[in-house]
């Protein structure tokens, strides 16, 4: 029997700000609080030179005496490209969430050919463990950690969430919620036998055992963070595949929601933080899950 879909409208109706915090969905006005109070660039969370992150800390005036919740951003790039500092990855997200008192951490992992996708997901696990260890130094709250990933970055965070053994190996705790922006590769045992982009073969090879190892659907066990899937409606596959994985999560007792937008694959990511319906939906989803 098909698992019931979780209605986004119910999630939005429960979105409440912290006591004393005003939540505005309009684009922020440029003020001192729009910009980070500090930027800690190229912070190492592992021994490899690629295992680095940029940390953007909010102005103290935005925090209302509370530790800052943390938004972790994972870039896309077909598992072989992309960078944490690309404007489309961070620019509008910083402009939107810094004034709301969030710390933002943009993460790089190793990429292909140096590391296959499962190893990249382990890098993300190490980064999340490191963020939890460093949070107090940043006046941030490790118990209010949210992870957002675009495209292949959405695959990495979904695989890490699904694979309890991987989280245990890397020391990554479960985070408050996942936001997957036009994600890829949720069910590789379904994707790989069908027509697909050539970069999937580069990433996952021809061995079904390797597909299963790197497939969130095949590794899905135990509790999962609530997940919001933001997908492009300009092609049929993104929302169809996101909905199938969301149904798997809800069938196992998890929480998942789908939000379709009429934007292309790159715009789904680049426009997050601008004044639009997707940004408002994401912010409401996150706000509803803040631990107060």
From TrEMBL:
An example Gene Ontology molecular-function term: hydrolase activity
Keywords assigned: Hydrolase, Signal
InterPro entries, per database record: AB_hydrolase_fold, BD-FAE-like_dom, GDXG_lipolytic_enzyme, Lipase_GDXG_HIS_AS
Segment forming the signal sequence: 1-26
Span of domain BD-FAE-like: 54-165
Gene3D superfamilies membership: alpha/beta hydrolase
Pfam family membership, one: BD-FAE
Keyword check for Hydrolase: yes
Name of the featured protein: Alpha/beta hydrolase
TM helices/strands, residue ranges: none
